[in-house]
Each structure stands twice: as structure tokens, then as C-alpha cells.
Write a structure and sequence with these properties.
The protein is α/β, with parallel strands linked by helices and about 425 residues long. The protein contains 13 helices and 16 strands. The chain binds zinc ion. The site of zinc ion has 6 residues, from loops.
């Protein structure tokens, strides 16, 4: 058993002081507030780990490299395809390990990897058809983060369009072949789980959406939804209904479903998502990077759609920034402050159940021992009220991270990788080398 003493801790009923947290194995055994220091002292505010519900690890290679001139989501996508073309299982392992290490350093203790880079260039299967999935699972294990591999079905290059030369790597040819390959991936680590995803209504025809829904079988099922107005208009032209209505008809919407982005959804769409008890995953730092627009987060939550958060393209990897943006974008749109309360924001930031880890995300007896300690004396957080320091902190203020009872970050340093920033630099440079 390990014992931790937190100066302040965010418990299910709010902020508590002087909290002893006993951990046995990967779980919290007991939590008692108002105690004297014992065991490892955690100075600052200790919170449950953040959940990163939406990631494409390789997009990290685009950070700081796509800001020349104008462009759009669609021109950014061309750059993203060029990077995807250069990755193989070995280089993807090395890159993803650095990306996941950055996430743990930022306080994320789980990540939902929306994984569609399945095959070798041209769409040829690797000798192990799940070599890329295996590489991602190994990268997560070596970076010390929980992984949910959301094996993503990606079949078409648009409504009634074959995949182009880049997209062929993403496609298994048909839905049954996708299902067979995805089902063959059996992770060996306790910190890896699986779910499924349909890339989008652009990339998965209605009959195949139904196959994805069936394969979920109680696991999370994710889908990109209405990130761009063009998806809505193309879907209306092709199918006479909105992307959300198409997903509902295919049986893909339910309590395990997560609609990623949901930026341009109608009131009727919101009703369908609520009726299905689905979630919406906002990725505010990516959505602003790509100029997607501001999704109706408050309206969705009011309708009963639970919110979760993801860093998606990793333009920014900072759990605080992501949830702050959820609130601050709403303020800009509504021209009013305090659109969400702390509990609502915190629930979204720690919604590990959205990627199949319902036992993670609370500091209480029986929950998983995923703890993150935020410094309260940094130049950014100094002087803030302890609970409100979460509105002042950045990823740089995270000192300690415990994932499933294991210390992965201590004193702001990653304990399993000496220099993750050097790994990232070298791997990304190699991808851009002539
Ligand atoms: Zn995405």
C-alpha cells in the first residue's frame, strides 16, 4: 500500500484540505480529509487525472508547421495526409510514445486513440494486419498512459467516392473486413482497452455504419460529426438528411456513442443525440486551430447530452486549456460569463467513461488511483484560490501524476522517458526530412 497526503484535493463533493489518500495496487483504498501529513506529501491541489477522449497521435507532427498563409480545414488535411504517408509501425511507435508522454506530463491519464492509419502505403496490409494498433499500444504502455484503441472504420473518400491514394492506407476495403481485422486485435496490457469508431458519414456509408454499431457490443463507439458545414450540405445532398439523422437511423447513437465535435448540429440533431443519451466530445483547441466554429456546448448539455473533451490534432496538449476553452468560447458566443460551473467543466475533463474507463476520474475509495497534482505557487497560479487555480494553471504547473497507482511523473519530470521532447523533435524532423 502507498500513502499520499494532499494539501488540497478535489473530491466528488468539492474541495477538501489535508487529505490522506491510501492506494492499494491500482485503486484508491481510502480517502480521509483533515489529517496530519503522512506518506508522500503532495503540495498543491490534487485532482483526478484528465481524460483525453479524442486523439490522432500522428497529428502532433503538424504542430507549428501549418501556419503559413491562409488555408482551411481541407488544405490542412492535405498536409496531414503527407505526414501519414511517411509513417510505418516503428516510426509511429516512437512518435506516439513522445506524444503520449506529453499527455501524461499535461495531466492526462487516459487517451482515446481514434485510429485509422491501419495499412502500409497503397492500402497493402502489413504482415501483422494490426501492426499499427500494436505500435500504439506499446507506445502508450511505455509512456505510462491508459489507452483506448478506437479502431476506426474508414472506407470512402467522400459520399460515393473511392478513397484517394492517401486514404487507401485507412481503408480495409469493406465493413466486414474492417470488423474482422479490428476484432483480431487483443491487447495484452491491463491499461489498454478497445472500442470502435466510424470515421465520419463522409468515410463510412450507411450500411457500414450499422456494422460499426454492431461491433461496439457495449464498448465505446465514436464518430466525427458535423465538424464542417460542408459535411452537412454534402450529406443532405447525398442522403436527404443530416449526418446526425443518418447515424441515428444506422443505430449508431446510444449511451456508448460519442459524437466528436458536433460543431454544426441543428436543434433537431441535438434532440436525437439527447434521446440516445449519447455524448459530445469537444476539442476546442483543435476546433479553433482549424477555424471550425464554436459548437453549441451549453445547448447540448442542457438537452441532456454529456460533454467530454479531447485534444484531437494536438495543436495544444493541455487539459486546462481545453476545458477553459469550453467555457471561454461559450462566453464569447453568448457575451456572458459563467456559462458552466466548475463541476460541469470538471466532469467533462475527467469523463474517462467516454472511452471505456468508468472506474477512473474520481478521488474516492474504490476508484482507480489516477491522481494529478497541480502546483499552487507557480508564477501562474500564485495567489489564486485553490479550486479556482484550475482556471489559472497550465500543463507546466503539473508536478505529480499517478496512473493506476504508478508514479509516472514526479516533480514535473516523466519517470519512464528521460527526454520526451528530444524524442518528439527527432521523430518529427525525420518526417519532414527530404
Ligand atoms: Zn479527430
Amino acid at each position: 500500500m502507498s500513502s499520499y497526503w494532499a494539501e488540497f484535493a478535489w473530491l466528488p463533493d468539492g474541495l477538501a484540505e489535508r487529505v490522506t489518500i491510501d492506494v492499494t495496487g491500482s485503486s484508491i483504498r481510502s480517502v480521509v480529509a483533515g489529517t496530519e501529513p503522512s506518506g508522500k506529501v503532495l503540495r498543491g491541489l490534487t485532482v483526478p487525472g484528465f481524460a483525453n477522449a479524442h486523439s490522432h497521435a500522428f497529428h502532433r507532427a503538424l504542430r507549428g508547421r501549418t501556419h503559413h498563409g491562409r488555408g482551411s480545414f481541407w488544405t490542412w488535411r492535405e498536409r496531414m495526409y503527407a505526414i501519414a504517408d511517411r509513417l510505418d509501425p516503428d516510426s509511429y511507435y516512437r512518435l506516439a510514445r513522445g506524444v503520449y508522454a506529453e499527455m501524461v506530463l499535461a495531466g492526462y491519464t487516459s487517451v482515446g486513440e481514434f485510429h485509422y492509419l491501419h495499412h502500409a502505403p497503397g492500402g497493402v496490409s502489413y504482415r501483422d494486419p494490426n501492426a499499427m494498433s500494436t505500435a500504439l499500444a506499446a507506445a502508450a504502455a511505455d509512456a505510462g498512459i491508459r489507452l483506448t484503441l478506437l479502431d476506426t472504420c474508414y472506407l470512402t473518400g467522400g459520399f460515393d467516392r473511392m478513397p484517394d491514394e492517401h486514404q487507401r492506407r485507412f481503408s480495409d476495403g469493406d465493413a466486414m473486413a474492417w470488423a474482422e481485422r479490428a476484432a483480431a486485435f487483443k491487447p495484452e496490457s491491463e491499461l489498454v482497452r478497445t472500442g470502435v469508431a466510424a470515421h465520419s458519414v463522409r468515410a463510412v456509408p450507411p450500411r457500414a455504419l450499422a456494422v460499426v454499431a454492431e461491433q461496439a457490443d457495449g464498448r465505446p463507439v465514436h464518430v466525427h460529426l458535423s465538424e464542417q458545414p460542408a459535411e452537412n450540405s454534402d450529406c443532405l445532398a447525398a442522403h436527404g438528411r443530416t449526418p446526425t439523422a443518418l447515424l441515428a437511423e444506422a443505430g449508431l447513437l446510444g449511451p456508448d456513442a460519442v459524437a466528436v465535435h458536433a460543431t454544426h448540429v441543428s436543434t433537431a440533431d441535438i434532440g436525437l443525440l439527447a434521446e440516445a443519451r449519447a455524448r459530445a466530445c469537444f476539442c476546442p483547441t483543435t476546433e479553433r486551430d482549424l477555424g471550425d466554429g464554436i459548437g453549441p456546448a451549453r445547448e447540448l448539455l442542457d438537452a441532456g447530452v454529456r460533454l467530454c473533451l479531447g485534444s484531437d490534432s494536438h495543436a495544444v496538449v493541455d487539459g486546462f486549456e481545453e476545458w477553459r476553452a469550453l467555457e471561454l468560447n461559450e462566453r464569447l458566443a453568448a457575451r456572458a460569463r459563467g456559462r458552466f460551473d466548475m463541476t460541469q467543466l470538471f466532469t467533462a475533463a475527467t469523463d474517462h467513461a467516454s472511452i471505456g474507463w468508468p472506474e477512473v476520474g474520481r478521488i474516492e475509495a474504490g476508484a482507480a488511483a489516477d491522481l494529478v497534482t497541480v502546483e499552487l505557487d507557480s508564477i501562474r497560479t500564485a495567489g489564486a484560490e485553490p479550486a479556482a487555480a484550475l482556471f489559472a494553471a497550465t500543463a507546466s504547473d503539473i508536478r505529480e501524476v499517478l496512473v493506476a497507482g504508478r508514479e509516472v511523473v514526479s516533480d514535473g519530470r516523466h519517470l519512464l522517458m528521460a527526454h520526451p521532447e528530444i524524442t518528439l523533435r527527432d521523430e518529427i524532423r525525420a518526417l519532414y526530412a527530404p
